[in-house]
Model the fold of this input.
Amino acid sequence: MKKAIIILTIVALIAPMALFAQGSKEASGPITIKFWTHEDVNRNPLELQYIAEFEAANPNVKVEYTTQASGKMADIVQTAFAANQGPTIFNLPISDEYAYIVNGRVAPVDAKAAGYADYQAIKSAYVDGTLDSVTVDGKIYGLPLELTNWAILLNKGIFRDAGLDPDKDYPKTWEDMVAVSEKIIQRDGDIITRRGFDFRYGYYLEWLVPMVEQLGGKLISDDGKTAIVGDDAWLKVLTFMQQWGPNGKNLGSSTYTAARKLFNKNNGDIAMALTGYYQTARIAEENPEFYASGDLMVIPFPQFKDAVKEVANCYYGHFYMVNAQASKAEQEAAWKLIGYLLSHGDEYLDKAALPQPTKKLFESPEYKAKPYTDVFSADMEKAHIMYYSENSAEMQKLLKSAVESVMLSGVSPEKALATLKASAQELIDEN
Amino acid sequence: MSDDREASAIMKKTTYRGIEKKQARWGVAFVVPSVLFFCLFSFYPIINAMFTSLFDKRILSLAAPKFLGLGNYIYIFKSASFWNSMRATLVFTLGTFIPLLVFSLMFATFIYNICGRRSRGFFQIAYYTPAVLSSVVAAAIWLLILAPPGLGNQVLNWLCRTPGVDRKWLANGTMLQFSTMLVYFWKYIGYFVILFITGLATIPPTIYEAATIDGSSKWQSFWRITVPLLKPTILLVSVMAMLQCLKTFSTQYLFTQSGGAAQDPINVITLNIYETGIRNQRIGRASAMSIVLFVIMLVLTFAQFKISKSDDVDY
Done:
């Protein structure tokens, strides 16, 4: 009996290895493409329509289209890949996707399947530099769904309600932002009931780093060996955030509902939000009265008064990528589908306000005539792609920790900077 | 003589199976599925984590991981982040486990002594209801309550006649820790109340009657009869509550991800494991932390069992 129990236990321990072990597969017969993407009320129905068209034209291909909340996508996709169960096609911001390239988890673009003659043709189709972040050793590993930067969306009605002229009094500098927010803000004692503006907490690589760069600082030195360069710049930004928060001027905080979630409602909760061009399409969809009211305005990313360099909010790209563990047939079908989807750049812009960074689109009169694209385009000229590397997520977390410590935990900017420097340097040295 | 030798030889050849062993076979047959399940979903992951903790394994990497031996353990024991997580976990556990134990016993005694069956049932349901909610829903509800304009501030300001004061439930480090303890306490108190009520029901009322006849007050009966005889239940509740507090994750995760709360004050060990393994992709290091947590839980559980065995009470 004891022997039987021991044998059974050993079998129970070994059995999972047989069950879960998987290598790459070679498919035969009908092809199923698992397509995972983030939720977008405007883009998802558009892509489902294109997928139906693609399936009709390619009867041996079936596409399973799954959407998740954007905040959850990185974890879900990563967990799936860790179990070798990753989707055939997926998209994430490049800061999350880069690790997939360096770890060989995604396949290079099949130019012909995607509708291009060769890699040179792909590069020629896109705005210069757009594909740099997904090009490694001469191979391109993704095609851009969108290239997005953030500017400030402004609600003119709230400005007027606060006695301000939105066309003249909109904030051009961060110092203006503080002054304007102080005029717009309403409180019940300490509790804010209407904010002028609030930051996009959690996404510090996108907006905090440009603020530091405006003052001459850097996240990483040019040679890539030193982290957190320019102490004065970093101190000034951390002090600014400390003053912004509940222990300073109390103009906003991460503990209030995110600005971009309230802005669309036009309920008088928030006057300005830092967000992308895609938000305008969401406003048109969710609150058409607000969209058509003429009270929506877009202003450039503010600069510090004593900025040494004009830097706008970083842009980031979402790239469609293909799982390297998918069979050759699945990869080819996947690139064919991606090529088909992305050939509808005009409709992505019209219906989902997602500008694909193709030369054809960016230089078209139609794009330039779209409302608000002029501000986003002008800001993009002054911006660079957000920091991406295998450890982007860790770097993001370190910045989050630094800002939270000064804003919420009462830590001095000097101490927060010292901790940030040490941790970020350790991260750079480890990798 | 030869008959004895023959009988002995037959005995040696024949394997004697008593009735107890025959019955035991059925017991083993019923237990084997659970053992298999445990081996597959608990034992195997523990062994796998122990093995992974010896390597520098990255979650997305297909390359063979580099063997570090105890390198991951040395790193985490030198890491300020790990010790902050230990502090956060210890503070949370002590701040939640002790009130859970004390108040669940108090509420159970109160409910058990209510005369009406309906009233007793009502209170049991009222206390237990939060336990059936998922942790995600519970955290989402409390995030709305504890947000600056939420009910938490409004009710407290009304009670204390302090309009407009922001208690910074999610902003201040100390208040944030208190908030997570409050949510956990609210969610799980009912579960342990029910366990105590079950334990109280096993104590024969005749013992209380005899004590009353002998002149014992309610307070004396509680300390001299109820608590000693409830020891097995107290042990069960204390072990379960302590282990659950050490493993807490969803409240802290949701508070920091959805609620915008600062992470460092409530960066409990499980949250650190998640961040290290999933966000930072260092699954080897995360495995080392989870083994350390496992050892801590094992040691504390063993200690609790040892302490409780010291003076068992029989009647």
Observations:
- Chain B touches chain A through 46 residues (CB under 8 Å).
- The longest strand of chain B covers residues 55-56.
- Chain B is about 75% helix and 0% strand.
